[in-house]
Backbone:
């Protein structure tokens, strides 16, 4: 008879081939880990390639190890373009997974920073976002990366190395931009962003042990009927030969003996059963204790990791959150830039800004938040700063008035693309006023003003606006200078010279 080891495994696949597919990939991964741990990068790369060719969905941690093997203790710039492309392709696959490890983000940043420095090119636009992900890297991964990648001037490598120098919960010192504009933008994005929230700790709930109950020593003997039947047959034979009284005595004796034997056998069976139950209970109890201990340790490690990551994010947030003095300094610098821009667009110089008495009259600036802007203050009782604000500059000479209006992005300090200038005589002013009105939010429209908070944002649904308005023939200038949230009895106002501009214009019109 001929026996063939062909079965219906994955179709009509040969058993040996099936066994190679199921168990071969695991063997390759184990060999790859061993070679990687021993520093045999050539063998590790071969085993990783064989494993990845067979595995349907490799874990992102395995892809990170494969990238470290491909780098082979060299900087990214030292590899060929084909090898660099393969490394980036593997890192992209690791970052696209749902549980992308921070170590993959750190390696991607190292690759990008080193190649940008070597090739003198601009960094990838996603670099800041991935750098934020890299801040979550744990101590073990940071140590492995710094050990396997030579020291370099990359900001991410310096960050990881600084983390290793202090193995406490200190913040990973992310790189500081060299340009003042980029540094300010990073500060301001942190200011208008959310403060990190302390993570909720996972609670340990032990698995309860419910032992199997022992079998009670009761019940009818299992072999009593058989013994009783045998005894009855023997008693019948004895009665036929001896007499009725002897028969009764014999029956009673045989029944008592069979009962005692049955009870003894039943007790032995129950004892053996209970011993087996106690043995299984002891094994199950020990297994539950082991699982509880592992679960408790895992939860403790997870809580410690979350707390350490929270402390790093909090330290980073505190570092990049601008102070009240910085905010005021940047805001006043933006106002000075707006004054200079107004003089340049109007073709005036400071010497021309004099009144009828010959005294120099500095340009007056009226500011206020742009609609659909977000407001936040640095500390309780301090001013609310909008992320975008409108600026109106009033420039007065002896014969005429110049007006300039534009917007400023307070996050970057850049002025908006839309600007407006106008020159007119004092007698051409039709109206100048400061008026208050309620701003009703239209149904279906986004809120026009949002107050940013650490816990949650709130919108000003029906704010009371105070608006500076200047009307001249053929033109109209208006700036919202003050907002009031009547529900919370709170004012939102920045530095503005609206009242001063109103007084000066009225004085000139009276003269």
Residues:
């Amino acid at each position: 008879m001929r026996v063939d080891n062909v079965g219906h495994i994955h179709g009509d696949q040969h058993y040996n081939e099936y066994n190679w597919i199921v168990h071969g990939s695991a063997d390759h991964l184990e060999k790859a880990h061993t070679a990687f741990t021993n520093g045999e990068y050539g063998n590790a790369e071969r085993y990783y390639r064989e494993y990845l060719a067979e595995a349907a969905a490799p874990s992102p941690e395995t892809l990170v190890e494969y990238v470290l093997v491909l780098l082979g203790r060299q900087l990214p710039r030292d590899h060929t373009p084909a090898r660099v492309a393969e490394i980036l392709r593997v890192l992209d696959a690791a970052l696209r997974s749902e549980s992308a490890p921070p170590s993959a983000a750190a390696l991607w940043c190292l690759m990008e920073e080193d190649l940008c420095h070597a090739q003198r090119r601009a960094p990838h636009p996603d670099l800041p976002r991935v750098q934020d992900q890299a801040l979550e890297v744990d101590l073990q991964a940071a140590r492995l990366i710094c050990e396997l990648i030579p020291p370099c001037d990359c900001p991410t490598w310096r960050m990881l190395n600084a983390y290793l120098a202090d193995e406490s919960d200190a913040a990973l010192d992310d790189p500081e931009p060299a340009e003042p504009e980029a540094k300010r933008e990073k500060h301001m994005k942190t200011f208008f962003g959310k403060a990190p929230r302390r993570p909720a700790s996972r609670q340990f709930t032990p698995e309860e042990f419910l032992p199997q109950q022992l079998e009670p020593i009761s019940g009818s003997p299992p072999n009593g009927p058989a013994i009783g039947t045998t005894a009855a047959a023997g008693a019948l034979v004895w009665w036929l030969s001896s007499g009725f009284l002897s028969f009764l005595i014999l029956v009673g004796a045989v029944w008592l003996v069979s009962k005692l034997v049955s009870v003894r056998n039943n007790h032995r069976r129950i004892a053996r059963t209970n011993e087996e139950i106690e043995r299984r209970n002891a094994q199950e109890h020990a297994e539950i204790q082991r699982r509880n201990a592992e679960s408790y340790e895992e939860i403790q490690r997870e809580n410690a990791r979350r707390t350490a990551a929270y402390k790093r994010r909090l330290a980073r947030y505190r570092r990049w959150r601008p102070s009240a003095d910085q905010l005021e300094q940047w805001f006043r610098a933006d106002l000075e830039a707006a004054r200079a821009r107004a003089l340049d667009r109007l073709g005036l110089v400071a010497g021309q800004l004099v009144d009828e008495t010959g005294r120099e009259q500095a340009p007056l600036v009226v500011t206020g938040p742009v609609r659909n802007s977000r407001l936040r203050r640095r500390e309780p009782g301090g001013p609310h700063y909008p992320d975008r604000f409108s600026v109106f500059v009033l420039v007065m000479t002896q014969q005429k008035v110049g007006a300039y209006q534009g917007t400023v992005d307070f996050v970057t300090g850049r002025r908006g693309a839309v600007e407006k200038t106008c020159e007119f005589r004092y007698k051409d002013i039709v109206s100048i006023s400061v008026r208050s009105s309620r701003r009703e939010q239209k149904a279906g429209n986004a809120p026009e003003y949002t107050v940013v908070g650490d816990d949650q944002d709130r919108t000003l649904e029906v704010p009371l606006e105070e608006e500076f308005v200047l009307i001249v023939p053929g033109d109209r200038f208006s700036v919202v200078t003050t907002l009031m949230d009547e529900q919370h009895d709170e004012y939102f106002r920045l530095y503005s010279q609206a009242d001063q501009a109103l007084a000066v214009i009225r004085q000139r019109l009276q003269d």
